[in-house]
Write a structure and sequence with these properties.
With about 240 residues, this protein is of the alpha+beta class. It is built from 8 helices and 11 strands. The strands form 2 sheets. It has an 8-stranded mixed beta sheet with strand order 4-11-5-10-9-8-7-6, with helices on both faces. Strand 9, helix 7 and strand 10 (about 210-215) form a beta-alpha-beta unit. Helix 4 packs antiparallel against helix 7. The radius of gyration is 18 Å and the shape is globular.
Amino acid sequence: MSSTQSRTDELESIGYELWLAPEVEELDGWRLRFAHGVTGRANSVWPNGEGALPLAEKLERAEAWYRARGAPVLFQVTDAARPRELDSALAERGYEIRAAPVSVQVATLDDVLARTQGVAEVDARLDDDWLGLWAGSRGFDRRDVGRKILEAGEVAFARIDGVAAGRGVVVGDWLGITSMITAPDARRRGHARAILHALARWGAERGCTRSILQVDSSNEGAVALYASVGYVAQHEYRYRLLR
């Protein structure tokens, strides 16, 4: 296995822990995730484990599992996917690429702390105001499901005056950053940097030395922000969808 492949495998395993679906079923090395449509990650196949079943059989079983829940079939695909021919097999089966790829990025916490500033409130509790800001920014009405996802793990919730928010998750010595939000009329005022600074301090206090986040590669503003505070792209994942 190349060093690049090994790195992708490592980061995908960490990324899995940042966003845990309330329903997960193992399928011969794959993990089938379901969360009533709340986010793509929590409603897609994480196909990164080795297995022994024929690929066609696994695909049929995965498709039946999602259809039994009235959900589209979605795969989160990277170079870590198994078997290696999965992406081409999905394409041949009629799975379409959905939206832009997502960039997985990493930084040292020292860099993030040195390049950010500002003050934000950090709380281990997820209250209704934070949840409402997050759900509203994403158009989700299943707040009960969102709460289950957001509260999973060792987490913290940062916010500024109801206009900006973010979530931190500890996974070993990694701090995961998710759910970054800034209200449209409050952007370009340093709020996102303050959220990042507060979460980085919280993570450092818990022994984290590195940080990981995932950002839509088409979101030029967010990509530029993260680059300016030390994040470097490592690999991308994309979704394949069977309608």
